[in-house]
Design the sequence.
């Protein structure tokens, strides 16, 4: 896979037109969800090329990252006579870039697309690296392909309409990037104060964080080895997220990752001696900013069953990425159901559940 250009810009319209002018295409489609159509699309008003684009608008939020919304995108592409020479822009958070990337990758066996993330989570993680897909059968990202966008255009101009919860959701993936990179990067992340947010500081941390992901994806684009480190916190996190959908009380992806990180650091301690002090420090940061995901022992069987579908699994055991310490990553670690339930018990103790 060739290196995917990730471009930071403060003049989004000019940058889009500059990138699009490098391509020859017959029709341009812009995919948004209802919110990004309202908040983000107007910010492209100075783009000459986007002003003639066909709009595709889907319902917002992860509960719509599904087959029905995907089908509606395929249908519009087909009805509007999109061809293999057509081009798509995914303008939205991770829900739009995941679903839109998959729609583009599969329509007529693949049309080219660029991602313009409008959330912090999208910018730091989802829009970058070529994982596309939808949720299916109650499981996160169960169907999808690896196929990177032609380019990713990151502009903080979109962040003005994001809530604190949106920012915190993206920040959880940044904490993950910190944990798998270096103590220096990680420790800086713990100093950000969300009760008195310094946006400039956040943006500096964002640029550093994207580089962590870019580097790993460049080395291992198809998640055969070290890319599994980007899945830290997700074996449990995805189970929490799916359970929240089942409960009809969906949590944001990054929140699920934040709580998943704590459970997986507890497993990291049990398997590899990850320092307890660091777990206490991070769980305090997460409890203060994210609260807790409520679980009881009644949920353990259901959570474990969900983890048996994790994409990293081989044969019957649940596969985790664990840490010996910050920046010391061990992939392909398996844990028994008993160990996982012990981690849930400890998580509940830490979060007073
Ligand atoms: N492909 C990957 O590598 C990868 C990585 C991380 C996460 N993900 C996926 O990304 C998704 C989560 O992404 P997300 O957190 O961006 O969620 P999201 O796309 O659902 O966006 C969250 C909410 O914010 C709204 N929104 C988006 N941009 C806005 C803006 N500028 N102003 C106001 N509202 C705005 C959306 O409409 C939505 O309601 C999950 O499906 C997750 O599985 C994928
Ligand atoms: O880019 C990756 O690789 C990741 O794992 C990034 C994750 O933050 C992201 O949530 C991803 O979609 C999870 O992928 P999955 O393969 O576990 O579904
Ligand atoms: Zn994630």
Sequence:
């Amino acid at each position: 896979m060739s290196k995917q250009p990730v471009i930071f810009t403060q003049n989004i319209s000019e940058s889009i037109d500059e990138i699009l002018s490098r391509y020859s295409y017959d029709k341009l489609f812009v995919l948004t969800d209802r919110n990004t159509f309202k908040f983000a699309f107007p910010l492209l008003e100075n783009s000459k090329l986007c002003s003639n684009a066909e709009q595709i608008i889907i319902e917002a939020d992860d509960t719509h990252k599904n087959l029905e919304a995907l089908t509606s995108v395929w249908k519009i592409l087909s009805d509007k006579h999109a061809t293999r020479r057509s081009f798509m822009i995914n303008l939205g958070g991770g829900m739009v870039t995941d679903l839109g990337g998959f729609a583009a990758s599969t329509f007529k066996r693949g049309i080219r697309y660029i991602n313009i993330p409008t959330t912090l989570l999208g910018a730091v993680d989802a829009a970058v690296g070529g994982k596309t897909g939808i949720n299916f059968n109650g499981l996160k990202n169960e169907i999808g392909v690896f196929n990177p966008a032609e380019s990713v255009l990151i502009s903080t101009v979109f962040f003005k309409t994001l809530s604190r919860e949106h920012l915190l959701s993206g920040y959880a993936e940044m904490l993950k990037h910190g944990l798998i990179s270096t103590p220096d990067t990680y420790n800086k992340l713990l100093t950000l104060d969300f009760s008195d947010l310094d946006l400039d500081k956040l943006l500096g941390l964002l640029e550093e964080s994207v580089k962590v992901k870019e580097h790993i994806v460049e080395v291992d684009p198809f998640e055969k080895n070290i890319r599994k480190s980007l899945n830290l916190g997700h074996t449990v996190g995805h189970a929490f997220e799916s359970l929240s959908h089942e409960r009809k009380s969906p949590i944001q992806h990054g929140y699920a990752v934040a709580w998943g990180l704590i459970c997986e650091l507890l497993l990291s301690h049990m398997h590899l001696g990850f320092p307890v002090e660091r777990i206490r420090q991070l769980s305090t940061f997460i409890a203060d900013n994210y609260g807790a995901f409520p679980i009881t022992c009644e949920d353990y069987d259901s959570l474990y069953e969900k983890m048996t579908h994790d994409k990293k699994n081989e044969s019957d055991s649940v596969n985790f990425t664990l840490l010996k310490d910050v920046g010391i990553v061990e992939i392909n670690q398996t844990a028994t159901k008993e160990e996982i339930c012990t981690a849930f018990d400890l998580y509940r103790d830490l979060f007073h559940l």
Remarks:
- The beta strands are 6-8, 28-33, 54-58, 87-92, 112-117, 131-136, 139-146, 152-154, 318-325, 328-335.
- Residues 20 and 49 are 8 Å apart (CA to CA).
- The chain is about 45% helix and 15% strand.
